[in-house]
Each structure stands twice: as structure tokens, then as C-alpha cells.
Structure prediction request, 441 residues.
Amino acid sequence: MVLKFYGHPFSTCSLRVATILKEYNVPFELIVVDVSKGAHKAPDYLKIQPFGQVPYIDDDGFILYESRAIGRYIAAKHRASGPALLPDVNTETQKYAKFEQAASVEAWNFDFYASKAAAELIFKPMRGLTPDEARAKELLESLENNLDVYDKILASQKYVAGDDITLADLFHISYGNLLHSAKHINLEDTKRPNVARWWKDITSRPSWQAVKGGVSSSA
Amino acid sequence: MVLKLHGFFFSTCTLRVATVLKEYNVPFEFVAVKLEEHGHKAPEYMQIQPFGQVPYIDDDGFVLYESRAICRYIAAKYRSNLAGPTLLPDVSTEVEKYARFEQAASVEAWNFDFYASTAAAELVYNPGYHGIPTNEVQAKKLIDSLNKTLDVYDQILAKQKYVAGDDITLVDLFHITYGNFLHTKGFINLEDEKRPNVRRWWRDITSRPSWQAVKDGLSPSS
Prediction:
């Protein structure tokens, strides 16, 4: 049975999962969860995703939520038919460890600030609320400081976990793109040439190009 | 060469790693980074950990930072040290169990620690270490969100013994340090009888010898 993807065409976390599904050419049916109408908080939805968040997948009866967990699952399950985006924990333990290090950095040093800044500057206005400009400024400053560190790291390696691309690179794209296209940060800033090189590389991948305008079913 | 754990003797993230090192009986040497001297921001330190954060390990020349990455590495490398079941499901032989582990790990990060660590900063670190008064409105929002998460945990833990399923995993242990920090200071109650499943789970994971061995802090020794 084709994989069912319960998400939203423009949600950052849905885009994150869709990118990885495209990397492995996994056919999927998108079932739109209308978050604007609170569909993700409906009792039937909460029975499956008890935190009331999107997305989740139903892979022939196997239910999974949390976009980065879904990404790892897809990369593991479809290993034979796509790029090696998830190092093998048993045969390349140190490479796996560096991947998990990079994934943790993406969560705590990038997305921690990027998602909160996006909530202030992009999502609040969409809901008719006033952004807390001072807080947003603090968040963006922290993000910028960390991008300066990224530039140092990417001076001596091609991607965030080493010289091979991994899921950790792809995890950055959806929130990075959201803030970059709204000009709250500049990921192509020439003052950070390594970040610029890396950003252009990962966002030029066909997987992201296929979904960046919105997710739709592919089967 | 014995594994070196560089961190603060009492830091939540350092203790998270120490707990897992104890679970796997991995001998280690604790190298204290001097918080009061901002040792983690010193140039020599930042050559190794460029974000200026603790902890990191040096495993016979292999350097790794980010506590949850270190824990996964320990569990993978020292898998055979455990008499009992692994704390890190094997992706190649049990992919669905591995996926549920990573789902629980992501929940721990985004629905638990996201609020717990920020609340700890707001309520304790800001006033205590940085001279910044607590923003009470913000702190209340964070604690409320954390309590909402714990209400959901109670539903999940009604049907399974641990956060990733019926076997304990690293993810249960990931919760202990920040959970304990806020619980012992009275900001949340992980033994609240209104959440009996959370209480059962909390008592179970915190009674493990690994946590008991490190909960009062580390000293420079193996």
C-alpha cells in the first residue's frame, strides 16, 4: 500500500519529510491536515498524534511522527534505493556519531533559534498577532552567531557531518529557506563563503526543488 | 587510553553523558572545565568545541560533542558491555523499533527539553549566573507547556512501559537531568499522582544505579 503522508503542503516539517521521500523516490499520497481549521487538534487526530502536531506517516500500517524520525526511518528502510544519507551505526560507528552530532547541532544551535524566530516574524503576523521584535532580534543574533561557527566548520569539510552529505544537511533546509526568503537571515552572505557554498549545494538538489513550492502527492 | 569526558561537574548535559557511561560500565576520566572562569569559551576549548558548549568526549583521539550524540555513540560502540537488551535499537535488524526510538528522542527534544531547558535558564541560570531577572510571564508559559507535554506522556505511558515502547532506551535516560533539575527545585512535579504513569516511569528510570551514581555531580576520577 502506498505510504500515506498526513501533513500540510507548506508546513516546514512536512517539507522536511517530503524532501527525504523525494531523495529515495518513495511514492506517497499526501492527505492534507488543515491546520488553519485546527484539524490537528481534533480528537480523531490526537488518537494518532497525541501532541497534536503535523506531520505523521502511515507506512502500510506503521505509524510514525516527528519529521526527523521519519527522515531517519525512510533513509534506513530505503537504503538500497537511494543515497547514503544515514551512516551505518554498526559498520561506520564514528561516521554515524558525527552524523548524530551534526543532527543535534541542527536541532539545538540552528532550529532552536530559527523556528522561534519564524514563529515571531512569520507565523504570528499570519495569525494577526504582533511580533515581539526585541525577542526576534535576540533569536536572530544567536542564529547569526551560530552560522559564523558553521562557516568555520564548513571551511574544513564539505557538509555538516563531514565530507559526505547526510540527512543532517537536509534537515536545515525548510526553516533555513523560510527565514532566508523572507530576508530575515542571509544564507548566501559573502561574509560566510562556506555557508553560502553549502547552502547553494543542498538547496539545488532535485529533492528540494521538487517540493519547495509545496508538497503534493506523488505515486 | 581511557575515555575523557570534558564538562562541568554538575551540568545537565555532562551528567546525561555520565549516566550512559555508567550504564555501559565504560571507565572514564572526568576533566573539569571551569565554568566560573568561562573555560568553555576559552580559545583552546573552542578549537575543539566551536560552539563553546559542554560536554565533549575524547575517546582515544576520537572527539565528539552534543550529549545525545555521545550517548548514541557509547551505546553503539559498547553494545556488548550490556548484559540486558540494548538501549539503542539496531536500525539494520529492527527498523521499526529504531524509528520509534528516534520518534521518542525527537519528542524528548522538542516537546520536553525545549521547554525544560529554557525554563531552567529563565528560572535559575539567568538570575543565578547572568544577573538577569526571571521573566515570570515567559517562565509560566514554559512550565505550562511542559506540563501539557507531561499530560500527553501520561496517556502514552498508560499503554507502554517506557517512552519508546516496552523496553527502556537511551531516550528515557535523556529526560533525567533536566527533569530532575526542575523537579527537585519544585518547578514541576514528576511524581504528581494526577499523572500516575509518568510517576511510575520517573521513579523507575531515576532509581537506576547509573543515575544514582552521578546525580550529585562528578569528580575528576575514573
The beta strands of chain A are 3-7, 28-32, 56-59, 62-65. Chain A has a mean pLDDT of 97. Chain A touches chain B at residues 50-51, 62, 64-70, 72-73, 76-77, 86, 88-90, 93-94, 96-98, 100-101, 103-105, 107-109, 112, 146, 149, 152-153 (CB under 8 Å). Chain A has two domains: 3-84, 93-205.
